[in-house]
Specification:
The protein has about 260 residues and is of the alpha+beta class. Helices cover about 45% and strands about 25% of the residues. The strands form 2 sheets. It has a 6-stranded antiparallel beta sheet with strand order 5-4-3-8-7-6. A two-stranded antiparallel sheet has the order 1-2. Strand 6 and strand 7 (about 230-240) form a beta hairpin.
Length: about 260
């Protein structure tokens, strides 16, 4: 096997999650994805560590030709246990997808209750780029917004100055999401709704582990204008769990 082939073999037949495997050989899981896709090659020491951790004996024939010794291959009982684990994982994934469908159906239902028809336009959108740190055990996350596009659109729709908006977004500073200053743009009920969705998302991430690497969610949001009036928008979120980053596109809606 080549280095890429043996990495894929280890991942396919491993009883460990990718996170646990990465931690056990002391590398970032993003490196393992790069090895898996053949974009980079693991050093000899990491292949040896993976083999040791997973209980395989290997022989190196040359720098890119590795053989697994048959006597170290998992027995039939282990294969059955692995299959049961795969089935269990698939069941969990199906449940997560069902929850996502329910979330989308709920969003659609909310949109139906908005007292006018919706018209969105890419030219009337602003995008916030961010990265985050998450503690799944404590269900807490820190968020740092790094950039914002089309800030004039936000100024016109929300009534704040550019300086005030940048302060609200807390650009380039990490904040605990539940205490982020961006929540002052929403009413108390909407903030509670967003925090509940964030906690649900973290619960899903904890259950799914490395199965899902990207989430895409679209939600109706009611922002508060500086003068107190409601401003309706659609927020489209993309969350990349591999890079722990994402974006939030704010599309303001118009009365047609």
């Amino acid at each position: 096997m080549t280095r890429r082939e043996i990495v894929n073999f280890f991942l396919l037949n491993s009883k460990m999650s990718l996170v646990d495997l990465s931690d056990s050989i002391n590398v970032n899981r993003s490196n393992v994805y790069l090895w898996k896709d053949g974009k980079t090659n693991p050093k000899t020491e990491y292949i040896n560590k993976m083999a040791e951790v997973l209980g395989y004996k290997i022989e190196w024939h040359n720098i890119d030709n590795i053989k697994i010794i048959e006597e170290s291959m998992p027995n039939e009982k282990d294969k059955i246990q692995d299959m049961e684990k795969i089935i269990s994982t698939q069941d969990t994934s199906i449940k997560l997808l069902e929850e996502k469908i329910k979330l989308l159906e709920s969003s659609i239902s909310k949109l139906k209750n908005v007292p006018f028809r919706i018209k969105t336009d890419l030219g009337r959108s602003s995008v916030l780029e961010y990265d985050y740190k998450v503690d799944l055990d404590k269900q807490s996350a820190q968020v740092r917004f790094s950039s914002v596009s089309n800030i004039d659109l936000l100024k016109n729709n929300l009534g704040y100055s550019e300086q005030k908006l940048k302060s609200i977004f807390g650009l380039n500073e990490y904040y605990e999401y539940s205490k982020h200053p961006i929540h002052q743009l929403r009413d108390e009920k909407d903030v509670k709704f967003m925090l509940e969705k964030a906690n649900k998302m973290m619960s899903n991430m904890a259950v799914s582990g490395d199965m899902l690497t990207k989430y895409e969610v679209e939600l109706p949001i009611i922002y508060k204008h500086k003068d107190g009036n409601n401003v309706y928008a659609i927020n489209s979120y993309i969350i990349n769990t591999e890079t722990q980053s994402g974006s939030s596109k704010i599309s303001f809606v118009q009365d047609v």
